[in-house]
UniProtKB/TrEMBL annotation:
Domain of life: Bacteria
Annotated Gene Ontology cellular component terms: cytosol
Assigned EC number: 2.7.2.11
Name by which UniProt lists this protein: Glutamate 5-kinase
GO function term, MF aspect, one: ATP binding
Pathway involvement of the protein, from the record: Amino-acid biosynthesis; L-proline biosynthesis; L-glutamate 5-semialdehyde from L-glutamate: step 1/2
Species in which this protein is naturally found: Shewanella loihica (strain ATCC BAA-1088 / PV-4)
Gene3D superfamilies in alphabetical order: Acetylglutamate kinase-like, PUA domain
Catalysed reactions, as listed in the record: L-glutamate + ATP = L-glutamyl 5-phosphate + ADP
Predominant place of localization: cytoplasm
Residues the entry annotates as binding ATP: 12, 167-168, 209-215
Subcellular location, record wording: Cytoplasm
Amino acid sequence: MANIHWKRIVVKVGSALIAPHKQGCSSHYLLGIAQFIANCRAQGVQVVLVSSGSVAAGWHRLGDVKQPSVSQKKAMAAAGQADMMATWDKLFDFPSAQLLVTHGDLRDRERYISIKNTLFSLLDHGLLPIVNENDAVTTDTLRVGDNDNLSAMVAAAADADALIICSDVNGLYTKNPQLHDDAKLIKQVNEINEAIYAMAGGATSEVGTGGMRTKIEAAEKAIAHGIETVIINGFDPDAFNRLLKGQNPGTLFTPFDQPMQEHVHWMTHTSQAQGEVIVEDNFDAPLDDQETQLTSDDVVAVKGNFSVGDTILVRKGDGTKLAKAQANYSSCLLSFIAKQPDRAFAHDVEQQTGPILSDENIAILE
């Protein structure tokens, strides 16, 4: 890594740093992070902060609860979010802004663009966006689930140059360093594959929802967008000093030389398929070629319920995933015409309605 060369970065901070003992927010570990953010801004680097911790910060507000219910966790998140924002505000001498999102917001193209525009507007006016998942209202079907992956989605939306993920260890090790003395820190990863995932264990923090695996998942999303990603030890103030000097204090994941196009990246890594279209196992036509567009003749089955504009998965009967794309048909209509014995009728419907898949929003998965 050269001297700090980023123009815009996303910093992800987890619950263990915000509220390490579930007794409210603590600034003990946040001072070094806040100073790093201030130094970056002083050098002209725009910063977006993705901050977990609302549930952990509000845990004590509901008394001595050992195993809270879903509704109690939502209440903790609602109480803790206010405390968390107040804690961050105390550490900065510049204005910040709260942005609460769900996966439902991110996977909807119109709302995703709205989030992008809000981030850009905040940054252009010198505010620090502080992003968190809206745990107080989100449901299982609408949640990202961990802020590591959320930070990668936010980094892509913000067109960031770098994503810095704070962990409770120095980076990715060959083994869990808390269990194995011979574990070695991997300084740089040029390709994320199964061998890299095999090195990631479970969560090592009692208050966080993500472990090293979710950080690798986040890195995979980010580097595909051309975003340099670094996992560092957020409990070590020197790690941030080294970053400012252009040094690598943890594990650096190098970005793709040719990043995915923005809409392809969103379709691949952020949008969530609402249903599936199954084609024959011998189907081999390029789905992103206007000359070989998917037709009802190719459709074997339709699974799930989706509407026009929803993201769907196209796969073969053997399970091979071919593409994610925006549907131009509802599941009801597509299933109906695909089952018609009179193919002339089906072709007439397609001629009037248009192609099954939107050729503007399609991501090839093979």
